[in-house]
Protein 1
Amino acid sequence: MSLTVWNVESIKDVAEMLGISSLGDEAASAIAMDLEYRIHQVIQEAMKFMVHSKRTVLSNADISSALRTLNVEPLYGFNTSRPVEFHEAAVGGGQNSLYYLDDEEIDFEKIINYPLPKVPRNISYTAHWLAIEGVQPAIPQNPTPSDHTTGEWAPKGPAAVTPGATAATKEASNGISSMENVEVKPLVRHVLSKELQLYFERITAALLDVSNSELRHAALSSLRDDPGLHQLLPYFIMFLSDSISHNLNNLVILTTLMQMAWALLDNPNLFVEPYVQQLMPSILTCLVAKRLGNDPHNHDHYALRDLAAYLLGIVCNRFGNVYYTLKPRVTRTVLKAFLDNTKPYTTHYGAIIGLKTMGKEAIRVLLVPNIKVYEILVIKSFEKGNDDDKYEANRCMDALYDSLLLLRDDQLSTDKTVPPNARGLLEKIVGNLMTEKIMEKGDKDLILALVDENNPA
């Protein structure tokens, strides 16, 4: 008598389906017992996967993992999230009920005519900044703040919303979970040591003290060489911006603040890159501001503008590859100031030397074509302006000439000679005033550079 739960007749039916018609009762009984053992073995292995997954319901994936562990051929097909539904078929004659799976009928013609999915992109690798000084930059590769909020406050546990929940259930669940899980944390203050706070107060006080030049120079020297100022860098940048906006009438303080920015840029131990956007307005203010200092007849502000232009070139050359829009935005700003006839000559001067720091290409493309038109404004000042206007217009023409000197090509052939119609060509290119200045200086290389550039033939 067989002790297995499997019926011997079922084993014989399966054997007949496989073409074995002469299977004895003893053999069928032995196969039934072995079948029961194998099924128990698979279920026990599958329950191990279920327990390790911290679940209480056995799944198809557990069975597949158990079969793979026992080195048995796995089940074939596709898993589905839909529950298995059996339907009863009507069988007459008092026979046992017959149940079948209610599978959805699929139209092959519809599947064949269904549009193909988009071709996926090729696998590639790219590098980006995950974080800079502990702060994630707002770039497409990094998650947005809303993603962080959604992930942190998403419903969890029993209050979580299932995919099939209704809209009202989702809203209620979101309201309950958000009330339970939201934790409002106070703002964290950046704590500085007493030594750093005292250092910051002494340095800022020394920089604003116009009566003690030795103390100012000592403070600037410390900013340029001290290796332990990285925690104070954002405070120095903020102090620089605020002090410039409140001391536009004090040339000494403005010059000291620009020297402070220079010292911070020169310090090899400071990482200034994240603060370029906050530093640029201060430099541009000292470069193209209408008026610097409280005396309109004092021309010392030109030295301050020259220093600001020098710092502008340092920032653009050092960080232009990181902030790829930095140079175009700065160039657009100073060019707009140069082309605005309503601006004073002081602003024009700053814009000219600012464009000069952008390199030869900016001078060739942006400055040279506008010199002849700019000459009209300068001639009016020479004819009808006062002494200050004439002086400032002359300074602008000198700045334009100094900018043109960068166009000289060191590789020009020494056997080239200035064409006899050079004056006429230069007047067409840069106007009469600049032509007179160039011919007066007699700079052969500059004449050839301008003539060859605009008359390549």
Protein 2
Amino acid sequence: MEVILLERISRLGQMGDTVKVKDGFARNFLLPQGKALRANEANKKKFEGQRAQLEARNLERKSEAQAIADKLNGKTFVAIRSAGETGQLYGSVSTRDIADLITAEGFSLNRNQVELNLPIKTIGLHKVVLALHPEVEASVTINIARTADEAERQVKGEDLTSAQAIYGIEEAPLSDEFFDEDEEGEENA
């Protein structure tokens, strides 16, 4: 099915482009959400008549998204989760969890705006990109830790999965004396 895009859609095209998409994508997503019109002569004329209005609305949305992105860029959000000693989470942190975390801080964000290839399954600092508008992105850091104290230590740069962090001991190499006895025994044999 050919449609006329009413806004920029990533991996598809710019506003005003006529693109061919699968019927289900057009019927179930683009048309109901008002992101596209069926490509026919009547709709092409309708679009040309509304083009200036649509561009103004798009520019307004973009400026709002840019204002939010300026506030969000570089900001760190802390998520407290239970995890094993090696840093593996019991469960994972998904796009929904990240959206809820950012929304709790007073920002309006939908889970579909969080760009995350795979759920996060380890503690640590993780960079996450937020697509606030098709042309505006923000980058935030999600600090996943077992406790608030650990979150503060991670920000300072500590590795919380090492033996020292877990048990409070230094990882020392085995002494040479341990091996000297075996080597002498082998020479005598």
